[in-house]
Amino acid sequence: MLKHELEAVLARHLGPVKAPPQLTCPSGISDSPAPNRATVRRLRPLAAAMAAAAALLLLFLWLRPPSSVLHSADPVQISAWLKLRSFDVPLRRDPPSIIHLTSAHVNGTTAEVDYQIAGRGARLTVSPPSAAAPASGSYRVVRSHLVRGQLFTLACAFPQDARTACLLCHMGAQLN
Amino acid sequence: MVLHEESDAPIIEACRQGDPHAFASLFEAHRDKVYSIALRFTGDPAAALDIAQDVFVKLLTRIRDYHGGARFETWLYRVTVNACLDRQKRRRPLPFIGEALDAILPARETTLAGLLRQEAQDHVRQAVAKLSPEHRMVIVLRYTQDLSYEEIAEVMACSRGTVASRLNRAHKILERRLKRFRYAQA
Predict the structure, then answer these.
(1) Which of A48, A134, B36, B80 is the Cys-Cys partner for A16 at CB 3.0 to 4.6 Å?
(2) Residue A39 has pLDDT above 90, yes or no
(3) Residue A55 C-alpha, separation from nearest chain B C-alpha, in angstroms
(4) How large is the average pLDDT for residues B108-137?
(5) CA separation for the pair A145, A43 (Å, rounded)
(6) CA-wise closest residue to B166 among B132, B126, B123, B129
(7) What is the DSSP secondary structure assignment for residue A23, as one 8-state letter?
């Protein structure tokens, strides 16, 4: 093999190569040029598929019926659940033992918290201030007041529970 | 080889002042050259990536030490060559280059001409991989970066005569190793 032949072979097979993208700038700043057209073309179907998947996910979340009932006796859990649905209901963390929470419901712009006072039914309804006093079935409205732009209405099955019903949110001293 | 020393000068000065954007520009301008030397010397893409990354970390931390005594590219090549040779000393013999090539080649050829080209490429790189580190490095600097004898001498901190001697010796070894292959091809 002649020297110039050897040199040609070496130049052909040992030429420079492009560094892989894993080689990163240690200063933490990338000055890489924008991806070329071929790369963009290759990634386009992937981007379209990801966009379609995201749209489907959003549609699913939008159409999915919201969970409107929570069965729980935990005031913290109920407060948090209502907060997620834009209702600010400051239930006491440690209500008197005579009060037992059972569930919470949300229906449009109205939320209801059902509980029992010594086994007798009671309900706190939270609604917009413009709404009429909510119908409470067999319950009788005993108290209604506006707090931070929300109408709080207490209803009890028995009138004698009217005072105790307030203890769901208030301390005893605040009742006077 | 075209050195861009004049156009690099303001960028190098900005790097010395600690400008990260200037360093990023310098990195982009030289990343392929540093990686190419490391890959052709080691024959191993992973090792080459390690070496190149180390070189740029060293460059970032030592750029203040560069005072323009040598041309910047010469200085950078020297750092790269030293990183390659240091790694060679620390490590056991390098993996067989043919296996490493599989990882970097885009796809194996399937046509007869393609297969022959592939085989030729493998033979050349295997022959280079078996050279001693000093002989291999002069071959890499000569054929990967197209450096002159004088530039290789400056990078490797030796005389022009030593470079000529190493290249001559490396050529002879490669000629002998590739002759058999050439006959086989014929």
Answers:
(1) B36
(2) no
(3) 36
(4) 80
(5) 59
(6) B132
(7) S
> Widest CA span of chain B, in angstroms?
58
Residue A66 Cα distances to A55, A150, B33, angstroms: 19, 22, 59
- The sign of the dihedral angle between the CA atoms of A84, A87, A92, A98 is negative
Instruction: Determine the 3-state secondary structure of A106 from DSSP.
Output: strand
CA distances from B177 to B59, B115, B124, B127, B141 (A): 37, 20, 9, 6, 20
| CATH of residue B116 | 1.10.1740.10
Q: Tell me what pLDDT residue B136 has.
A: 94
Structural domain total, chain B: 1
Dig out the tokens for B152 from the structure.
């290789």
Residues B45 and B141: their CA atoms lie apart, in Å, by 18
Residue holding tokens 């075209």?
B2
The set of residues, in sequence order, having a beta carbon less than 8 Å from that of B33 and lying 6+ positions away, is: A16, B73, B76, B77, B145
Return the percentage of chain B with pLDDT > 90, whole number: 40
**Range of the structural domain that residue B57 is part of:** 5-185
Considering the entire predicted model, what is its pTM?
0.53
Residues of chain B contacting residue A27, judged by C-beta atoms under 8 Å apart: 20, 23-24, 27, 60
Query: Between chains, do B124 and A10 touch, taking CB under 8 Å as contact?
Result: yes
Tokens standing for A118? Answer: 């010594």
CA distance A4 to chain B (A): 10
Contact A155, A142 (CB under 8 A): yes
Token pair belonging to B63: 């750029």
The pLDDT tens digits for B45-100 are: 999 999 999 999 988 888 887 877 778 888 899 999 999 999 887 765 544 444 45
- The model's pLDDT over A135-163, given as tens digits with 9 standing for 90+, comes to 666 778 777 888 878 888 888 888 788 88
Using DSSP's 3-state secondary structure scheme, residue B164 falls into: helix
Q: Would you tell me how many other CB atoms lie within 10 Å of the CB of residue B138?
A: 29
Q: How far apart are CA B128 and CA B119, in angstroms?
A: 14
